[in-house]
# Entry
Amino acid sequence: MYDYLMLDKNLLPHRPGRIIGVCNSIGYEIRVSEATQLVDVYKGTTRPIFLRSRMDTNSGVFTHYGFTSLKEREVFDALITVKSVGWDTALKILALGWDVVIQLAAKGDVVEFQKVKGIGGKAAARLIDCKRLIALEKTLLPKTALD
# Structure
């Protein structure tokens, strides 16, 4: 399993939720959350770009998923353990922001989760019961975030 992708200086926008990352003159399509795609921290950089990653090989196609931080990837890893939440749906949930996802799970906010395309009532209930998300609330968020 790949832990990170180190890409050349430019990320090329491709389609919503996808970018092209270039490494050694080869362009790789990388799926990212809307939140990751909107972060323009790499624009104009002269250094290689470092993205945390996951690669899905289950569908017979190698699909790369990129994250700007280890925290974002940890939340993604927790989301894909939830029944009926696939890799692409997890990216849609992450568009809320990794910290917001943890807060929603901690508060038990089923309604906000249901606003994400592909999340129904049962999946939303499973998200707020996800033990991995609850554990991340204790380790990734500052204590004042939920006050």
Remarks:
- The chain has two domains: 4-67, 72-141.
- The radius of gyration is 16 Å.
- The chain has a mean pLDDT of 83.
